[in-house]
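<context>
A single protein, sequence plus fold
<sample>
Here is the protein in question:
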Amino acid sequence: MITSFIKKYILPKEIDFLSALNEHAMVIKKITDDLHKCFLSQNEKSCQSILKDQHKAEEIRDNNMENLLNTFITPIDRESIYRVITQLDWIAISIRHFLIEAKAYNINNLDRQYGLMIEKIQLQAELLTAGFKTVKSDPEKTAQSAKRIRETYDALVDIYVLKMSELAQAEDYQKIFAQKELLSQLKEISKRMRMSANSLEDIIMKMT
């Protein structure tokens, strides 16, 4: 009874930040899935889901940030938690920006190479959620997930370069501008995934 009283009223509150970050990552995974359905299957409902889930990701971000500011004891380095929160936030925002730009350019469907890039991003999101799930139980598996996220980014850049080289041969300057913006946005999303993987690896280095 005394122990429970001390835990409840005296000891600082402890937050399970790893679970909170994993929840954030799972929302990101759903957004990447909807990105694929939106532009490769022309599913307008999925397009709208991106906007809705981005707001949900933002709410999780704000909640995690508030907990971080108000929690004295954290299971891992505070700066590491902060970096992951902000990087996941950037991913969700960047996907929203991609959607808004594509719609502004009246682009509702994308070719197979775009599909391959989005599938790479989906894989990165899947590996990121898997990485968070194994931080405590299997740090080595988390490190492997982080490594694969970086490798997937490199594979996406290969496709990006190929698309850009093809675009350089085009004569329609309006098309060149729109496609360049969208390609750059996908590259940025994948880059943020890679940065999140680096931060995830930083977490396990500090926990072991």
About this structure: The CA atoms of residues 13 and 207 lie 20 Å apart. The chain has seven helices and no strands. Confidence is low (pLDDT under 50) at residues 1-12. Residues 173-207 form the longest helix (35 residues).
